[in-house]
Amino acid sequence: MSDGKKPGLIPLDDALAALLAEIEPLGGVETLATADARGRVLAADLVSPVDVPPADNSAMDGYALRAVDMTSLLPVTQRIPAGSVPMPLAQGEAARIFTGAHVPPGADTVVMQEYTELVDGRLRVTQPVTAGANVRLRGEDVRAGSVVLPAGARLDAVSLGLAATAGAAQLTVTRRPRVAVFSTGDELVMPGEPLPPGAIYNSNRFTLRALLDGLGCEVVDLGIVPDNLEATRAALREAASKADVILTSGGVSVGEEDHLRPAVQAEGKLDLWAIAIKPGKPFAYGRVGDAHFIGLPGNPVSSLVTFLVLVRPALLKLQGAARLTPRGYRLVAGFDWPKPDKRREFLRVRLDDEGGLAMFSNQSSGVLTSAFWADGLLDNPSGQAFKAGDTVRFIPFAELLA
Ligand SMILES: Nc1nc2c(c(=O)[nH]1)N[C@H]1C(S)=C(S)[C@@H](COP(=O)(O)OP(=O)(O)OC[C@H]3O[C@@H](n4cnc5c(N)ncnc54)[C@H](O)[C@@H]3O)O[C@H]1N2
Ligand code: MOO
Ligand SMILES: [Mg+2]
């Protein structure tokens, strides 16, 4: 802990480890319709009761036959649209078949119709295909009895589709965290209201609510809290009575208008403060009652970055997610960075046309445009300068905002 004047900054990895050590998964499950489970975490392995596809089926509109018959003129003895049940195919016969229709027993190959012609009602293959072509095998996607989605999987568009392909109408997911959110700042005004002198629109509320929503959390929005100790303490008490997590923005730095740290110390305890991260240094973590307290810096980019790097893993751990941190990728910097900081930096960067990384010109933590422009964050270790052409670590927003 620091006295607030000369903070000994905590390395980010240590801070994240300490934060995650405080987080126990919430426990508790609920069963939801598959369509309603986006953003949630699967509570138990999902085992498929069926093979997918359930039978060998055609990948093309064309004709099913036996490969050995490919060079003969074949009578077309049945017509098999998708959804119908075929009859067995005898040697020397072909069947008209459509994409997705079950291949008749006896047939082993499908020839697309463009590679065939009918001669007096009989099928001639004009362009032979290899044996087994265009047949999608039973169970080649999912085998009955296998785990389609493991416990801890986060449910996104692809995993929900996969659950449905295995026939799951409902999914058992972990309990969603209740997160009470408030913004602090006498200067804050809500969009839609006039902007008086000295004021600024409250953007963090919207960023944070959307981030929480994406992570499957239930938001308790306590609005804007003025910059005074009593109001901040009262807001913390209310938040702790209503939520598993209290998430605030602003008022965590060292000015006498920053009341969150003393308020948390009065109402509970402060475990972590001042991280070696840029932007986002005054990030704070503690407890108020049974609730976790997380204080994000007010600057909009600091608030966003600390959420993505520190809060997101914590909220995922609360929900029992298997993967807490995003993948990083090694990419080439397209610019020089001659001014290393003591803090680990997260620069807002974009993929350039050569597959390297370009940087937004203004990296101020107040410039939210930088994050909108960017494709992700360049994760630069503390004290490190780099040059164009050097390899750096890139974390795409596609990973962080999923
Ligand atoms: N003497 C020092 N001053 C500051 C330090 C320091 O080490 N010594 N750290 C700076 C850093 S780094 C950051 S980050 C900020 C964090 O400040 P706070 O968390 O106390 O946030 P505020 O002072 O309340 O606000 C900062 C900035 O952000 C704007 N803001 C706040 N909330 C919102 C919101 N909901 N929507 C949009 N904008 C918001 C606010 O107007 C301020 O401009 O402290 C530095 N100071
Ligand atoms: O940490 Mo502050 O975010 O450098 O502006
Ligand atoms: Mg401040």
Question: What does this molecule look like?
Answer:
It is a single chain. This protein has 402 residues and is an alpha+beta fold. It folds into four domains: 9-27 and 176-318, Molybdenum Cofactor Biosythetic Enzyme, Chain A (3-Layer(aba) Sandwich), CATH 3.40.980.10; 29-51 and 144-174, Molybdopterin biosynthesis moea protein, domain 2; 57-136, Molybdopterin biosynthesis moea protein, domain 3 (Molybdopterin biosynthesis moeA protein, domain 3, Beta Complex); 329-400, Beta-clip (Beta Barrel), CATH 2.40.340. Helix content is 20%, strand content 28%. The protein has helices at 12-22, 157-165, 204-214, 229-242, 260-267, 300-318, 369-373, 397-400; strands at residues 29-33, 46-47, 57-58, 62-65, 74-80, 94-97, 109-112, 116-119, 122-125, 135-136, 147-149, 170-174, 178-184, 188-189, 200-201, 218-225, 245-249, 269-273, 277-278, 284-288, 291-296, 329-332, 344-351, 357-359, 376-380, 391-396. A hairpin with a 2-residue loop joins strand 20 (284-288) and strand 21. The chain binds ligand LQZAQKY5, molybdate ion and magnesium ion. Residues 183-185, 187-188, 200, 202-205, 249-254, 258, 279, 281-282, 297-300, 302, 365-366 line the site of ligand LQZAQKY5. Ligand LQZAQKY5 binds at residues 183-185, 187-188, 200, 202-205, 249-254, 258, 279, 281-282, 297-300, 302, 365-366. Catalyzes the insertion of molybdate into adenylated molybdopterin with the concomitant release of AMP.
